[in-house]
Amino acid sequence: MFEGVLIRAYGGFYYVKKGDEIWECTLRGKFRLGKGSAALVGDRVRVTPVRGNTGRIDEVLPRKTELFRPPVANIDQAVIVFAVQNPEPNLPLLDRFLVLAENAGVSPVVCLNKADLMSGRREHEWLRLYRKIGYPTVVTSTKTGDGIDELRQLLVGKTSVFAGPSGVGKSSLLNAVQPGLELKTGEISSKLKRGKHTTRHVELLPLAAGGFVVDSPGFSSLDLPEMEREELGYYFPEFAGFTADCKFNGCLHHHEPHCAVKKAVERGFVDKERYQNYLTFLDEVMQQERRY
C-alpha cells in the first residue's frame, strides 16, 4: 500500500499521483456504499496496487480543508477570479465566494482579470475596497501579460483552487501561468452575456514551480455553507474593529440597538453594499437554520 494525491476523478475511475506516476484506481466498496468518506480531488489517499499501474483506494486520509463547490479537499488558497467586463463583475457573488473560503479555512485571493479592457489606468473602486479590507488582490491580463508573474508567485508551494463565474478567464490564466497546460477556453455568449462552461470536471494540476492548481467548472450561483447565524459576521473582516463596542454579546448587526457595526456603516467606515450583502446572507443562514 502507498500514499498518493487524488488529482482527478471521472468515468468511475480515480487517478492518483505517486511521484511522477499516475495510477488509475477504483474505490473500495465501503466508499461506494456510502459507509466511508467519499474521495475528493485533493485528498491524500492510501492505495493498494492491483496490477500494472492500477490500484484500489482503501483509505482517505483526514482533510485539513474541504470545499463543496467546487468539491475539492486540502486546499490552501482560493483564487477568486472576476473580469473587468465580459462578464460584468458580480460583487454579491464575490462576497459569497469569500464567505465560503473563510468558512472552509481557505485563504482567498481576489483576482481581477481582463485588465486590458479597463479604460485608461483607472483601477476599479471595488478592488481598492477589497484590498483595504485586507484581501490579497492581483490584476491580470492574459493578452498583455500584466500580473501573470505576480499571480504565478502567489501559487508557488501551495494548493490553490481557481474559482469564479464562467467566462472570466480562469483556464486562460492557468494556461498563462504555466504554458503547456493547454486547457480549453471559451468565448462569452453574445446572447446570454455569460461564459460557456469549458471545464467539465475538477482536476488537480501540478505546477513546474511547485504546488498544485485546480481548474473547475464555472457557475453563476452559489449556496452559502451551513453555519450558525452568529458565525457569519466573522467572515466580514471589516466588522472586527467595531464588534467589541456593540452593546450585546452575539450581536447580529441587524435589528439590535447600539450596534457599533451599524454606526460604522452610517459613518462610511464599512461599505454599505458589503453590509447589505451581509444582511442578505444573514437571512439565508437563518432560513437554513429553520430547515435543519
TrEMBL record:
Residues 73-220 form the EngC GTPase domain. Zn(2+) binds at C246, C251, H253, C259. One of its GO terms (biological process) is ribosomal small subunit biogenesis. It comes from the Bacteria. It is found in: Cytoplasm. Residues 64-222 form the CP-type G domain. Monomer. Associates with 30S ribosomal subunit, binds 16S rRNA. Belongs to the TRAFAC class YlqF/YawG GTPase family. RsgA subfamily. This is Small ribosomal subunit biogenesis GTPase RsgA. It comes from Desulforamulus profundi.
